[in-house]
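Reader question, answered in our methods column.
A reader sent in the components of a multi-part assembly and asked whether the whole thing could be modeled at once rather than chain by chain. We filled in our standard form and ran it. Here is what they sent:
COMPLEX SIZE: four components
ENTRIES:
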Amino acid sequence: MPLDAAQTKRDRLEKKEAAIVDAATDVYLEKGFEKTTMAEIARRADVADGTLYTYFKNKNALMMAVVAAHWARITDEANKSISSSDNFFDAVEAHARYHITMLLKDWRLIDLSYVLYYMQRMPEIEATAYKREYSSVFDRVYNRALDRGEIRSDVPLRHARDLFYGTLEYAARTQVQGRSKQEVESIVKNLVAVIREGFAPSKPSTTREAIVDRLEAAVARLESVSSRKPTSGR
Amino acid sequence: MPLDAAQTKRDRLEKKEAAIVDAATDVYLEKGFEKTTMAEIARRADVADGTLYTYFKNKNALMMAVVAAHWARITDEANKSISSSDNFFDAVEAHARYHITMLLKDWRLIDLSYVLYYMQRMPEIEATAYKREYSSVFDRVYNRALDRGEIRSDVPLRHARDLFYGTLEYAARTQVQGRSKQEVESIVKNLVAVIREGFAPSKPSTTREAIVDRLEAAVARLESVSSRKPTSGR
DNA sequence: CTTGAAAAATGAATGTAATTCATATAGTAT
DNA sequence: ATACTATATGAATTACATTCATTTTTCAAG
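And here is the structure of the entire assembly that came back:
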């Protein structure tokens, strides 16, 4: 088989697969999970019922593809959301703003991930992989800040990550479920403020004793630094 | 109808209803949502298939009852979890510890609430009411601390609540989904530390603190001059 | 330009599980 | 005991997901 013919064929199949995923997304957003039927998806994608099964193992796999397409989109956007900030707190604020705005806009698709995950075990599809990829955005920002000494170093990454995404997702869910109006800015500012206080390099205590301790420690660090450099002997 | 006869009759029906809910809980915990069938529940509860529908409108309503029974249990326990602490941070720590321990133990039932909620709209059942009742535990602790001036007063309750429950639920979910071992204490201590820093009444800065800041800055400059610590990549 | 084997697509048939409903049974008041 | 009502029953119905025997399309080789 010539290479460009194969290319064309694969293109054609991928286009059809994408059309099916798009149709499934539309139906799901209109009707919700329970009322989405394979027959309706097939009708919208303009294929026969059976055709769906040549592209996806079953309904769950198809819905998982819907979810995967969405995570790919937002992971891409999330990476852009931090690109303009160079200090930790600005990057956190930008990413928080992007994240909660997205959650409020696309919550039905995000929640679909959870529904699929909890409805049945699907280890072969690894439903949480998309999320892990997405949350690596925060990980990079955090690790860079650690390297630069912008934040205290005794809080493990995973705790910071849980705080960040957990707070935003809970806030978004509260807002979507209740009928409270959206208040993105208030939520973002509050989270950033807490992180600013809780993750700042630890402020030394102001007792005289503590000052002396701090000075001793600083001197010790200086000594150990210069002793590692034989050229600048002491 | 005599009153005690009515009482007996209602008792009988309530016992049967509880038996059905218990059977449903068992089957669900064994098989997961998709593989739980009404026929199996009926068999376990020792009633006919149709009988289930004289107690519950449909499968979702029955599963919702399973969820409701669980929320009632844990709301009761949660209230006990804070009763022995009298200051804010102790109460927060006690409740945090109870909450995440419960989440790790009963996550399948907690998640079932979400699955049901997101699978279809059920405004008549008000799936989130249980959760609202539960989270009022935190609200009471927080409002009491506000009254007593134990914490700063410019953080709205809902933001504090989102931070508290959001962080713990995200942490629990991460742990359940991954195969990382449980680390309740680390998570609790970290959350309490962040809340302690972020919610403490703001202290006015003192002269001594300014001195320390200046010394810190001077030492940092010295250190950066005597050795260019390369930022370790990652 | 044919051709036939492999890949895709089809939709009627099948299987599974939720839900309904006509009928039977049990409980209660008179 | 009798009639009346509330409960319980499980066979029949319904709604979908999924399968599979056929048909249609694609494409490399002659």
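What stands out: Residues 9, 13, 47-51, 54 of chain B lie near DNA strand D (CB under 10 Å from a C1'). The first helix of chain B runs from residue 3 to 31.
Send us your own complexes using the same form.
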